[in-house]
Amino acid sequence: MAITVVGSIAFDTVATPLGRRERMVGGAATHFALAASFFDEVRVVGPVGDDFDADARAVLETRRTNTDDVEHVAGGKSFFWAGEYGWDLNSRVTHDTQLGVFETFRPKLSAASRQADVLFLANIQPGLQRDVLEQCEQPRFVALDSMNLWIDIARADLVDVIGRVDCLILNDAELRQLTGKPSLLAAAREALSWGPSAIVAKQGEYGAALLTAGGFFALPAYPLETVVDPTGAGDTFAGGFVGYLSRHLDQLGDEATLRRAMAYGTALASFNVEEFGTDRVVRLEAGELHERIDGLQQMTHLEPTREQEFQT
Ligand code: AMP
């Protein structure tokens, strides 16, 4: 089994109330791979420029992530993003987005990447997501993430590719923007009608909700005293969620399996935000992850309530 992911491989300059870092290794595919590589072999598809040196590649290759389909474009510059957060870490301002080598990138997947059972179309131009999807032979599970930029400038392409995937993972505000529906349930129902069988609405520090034709489930974010840098939390969540499902492909129709996948996504994302960029997840150990899964299970457990507790 393997998971193929296409998405940005980037350098990020990030400012938060707790500090500022220049040109950290980042990108949606990078954060996804760092999380999903706990569960399965991950194969990253995407271009990088001359600036993507051996140290940067080593970050991407954490836990043996395969970079055979990471194309070095000679003379090119890697994707660059700069953003800033205030005290409300749920909202950020983008100062700069430079597509660099992604602007002219035409993916050509190796045979091994085309044969992956699981495909994650991380946040990048919807046209590129479709291109990769069309090259994959018979994926058993395909999930997709996107963002407001692509809803603004490439909505028709985005809706088209959403219609071909099993699961849509999006911020709740973006889900509302995409569907034009003000409530989360109505927005999810609209998106489900386009084709996917599951929608995950990410809600930043408030957690994430799972919506399917027959069910609703929500988990809070794992509570933390200090959040240093939320960048990549969504992609890290997706890596945990999709990574867990890749080990349970025979139980995809089972709501309990999807719920457990939500717990892995939530726990992994909580580590990502504790330090800048990829620093924390690069050195994360499986035992630490399981402790947070147990913690989530305890803190969300609800005893049955009793009718006689109401006055008559
Ligand atoms: P997240 O915080 O999970 O939404 O993802 C943040 C990551 O997305 C950063 O590492 C950025 O490099 C990357 N990113 C930001 N803007 C874009 C964009 N327009 N397309 C693709 N990736 C992006």
Q: What would you note in describing this structure?
A:
With 312 residues, the protein is an alpha/beta fold. The protein has helices spanning 28-36, 54-60, 111-114, 126-135, 148-153, 155-162, 172-179, 184-193, 233-246, 255-272, 279-282, 286-299, and strands at residues 2-6, 10-16, 19-26, 41-48, 70-72, 79-85, 92-98, 118-121, 141-145, 167-171, 198-202, 208-212, 216-219. A nine-stranded mixed β-sheet has the order 5-4-1-8-9-10-11-12-13, sandwiched between helices. A four-stranded mixed β-sheet has the order 3-2-6-7. The longest helix is centred in the C-terminal third of the chain and has 18 residues, at 255-272. It starts with a strand and ends in a 13-residue tail after the last helix. Bound molecules: adenosine monophosphate (AMP). The site of adenosine monophosphate (AMP) has 17 residues, from strand 2 and helix 9.
Provide keyphrases for this structure.
single chain, 312 residues, alpha/beta, 13 strands, 23% strand, binds adenosine monophosphate
Quick rundown:
It is built from twelve helices and 13 strands. It is of the alpha/beta class and 312 residues long.
The average pLDDT is 96
Order of SSEs = EEEHEHEEEHEHEHHEHHEEEHHHH
Describe the global form.
Answer: globular
Helical segment tally? Answer: 12
**Biggest sheet details:** 9 strands, mixed
Radius of gyration: 19 Å
Report helical residue fraction: 25-40%
Report the uncertain regions: none
Q: State the secondary-structure class.
A: alpha/beta
- Biggest sheet: strands side by side, in what order? 5-4-1-8-9-10-11-12-13
Distance between the termini: 58 Å
Task: Name the ligand types.
Answer: adenosine monophosphate
Q: How much β-strand is present in the residues? A: 15-25%
Please tally the β strands and state the result: 13
